[in-house]
Amino acid sequence: MKYLVVGPSWVGDMVMAQALFMSLKQQDLQAEIDVLAPGWSLPIIARMPEVNTGIAAPWKSGELALKAQWRLARTLKGYDKAIVLPRSFKSSLIPFFAGIPERVGFSGEGRSILLTDARRRHPTRAGSTITDKTVWRYMGLGASKAGYETYRFDVPQPSLTINKTNLNDVMGKLGLDPERPAIAICPGAEFGPAKQWPLENHRALAEKLVQQGFQVWVMGGPKDVEPGEQIANGQEGVFNLCGKTRLEDTVDLFSHCRKVVSHDSGLMHVAAASGADVVAIYGSTSPDFTPPLTDKATIVRHPVECSPCFERTCRFGHYNCLTGISVQRVLEACQ
């Protein structure tokens, strides 16, 4: 069977979607899987051996891009089934325009008419108990209707291919010592400040790790350059790599690290899929909903009465779920 999967728009979600691709391959070794997704994600998709081809989506955030979607859809031939992971109306258009005979996705946004199998999404929580996971949602769309009703999945752990040659090249260009053990710190979280441990704590953690003999790599995108500088500035052995690496470089660098300290963010999932040991700091979100999909993870939380709230900012302004996590506690998790 030949699949077109419409992928998600967040880094972490794209990594978790690999569990679906692995499951489809387990069900059918001959399955061909192409993934339609934002252009930035193609380097990550290229590290997923289950995927045949990554196709750049013709839309940007907030754009419908009907003409561009129609033109691309006309070039997509021979697919038996489309699996649409996002819930947006526009994400269902290309499989519909392409005439793919089976089109599975979640109902909502008035798009059920574009799908041949519109499924009702399970609730995230029942009271204070988390009852669903993002990865279950993705795997559920790849299951049969009967399998979706059962809603029980053996989740394979995402595993991105490591390019050792690229790793050595990147370390050389950045002036990183390949012999000194490294720990990465990822201070960003695109979701918002309710996921972010205080920068002064990251800085204090980096200082203590250097004292223990580690080099510390502060990693993130262009938006994290300034926070990275606040952590690294004036600290020998702490390198601010934010904005200096491509996403695929990050995969390879993580594979070299003794530990990766991250919030519940896209880079946490990338680190897990690179094979790194992950120290995952949770604030407003929950590891029951978006856990790092690896056996090599240590979860650090400070539960308070109002968490998990899944809010981008703290409605009370105290951020106690994050400020209550001590530097010493995270340091111990790095041992």
TrEMBL record:
SUPFAM superfamilies the record matches: UDP-Glycosyltransferase/glycogen phosphorylase
EC number(s) per entry: 2.4.99.24
Reactions catalysed: an L-alpha-D-Hep-(1->5)-[alpha-Kdo-(2->4)]-alpha-Kdo-(2->6)-lipid A + ADP-L-glycero-beta-D-manno-heptose = an L-alpha-D-Hep-(1->3)-L-alpha-D-Hep-(1->5)-[alpha-Kdo-(2->4)]-alpha-Kdo-(2->6)-lipid A + ADP + H(+)
CDD domains in the cross-refs: GT9_LPS_heptosyltransferase
Keywords, in A-Z order: Glycosyltransferase, Transferase
GO CC field: cytosol
Protein known as: lipopolysaccharide heptosyltransferase II
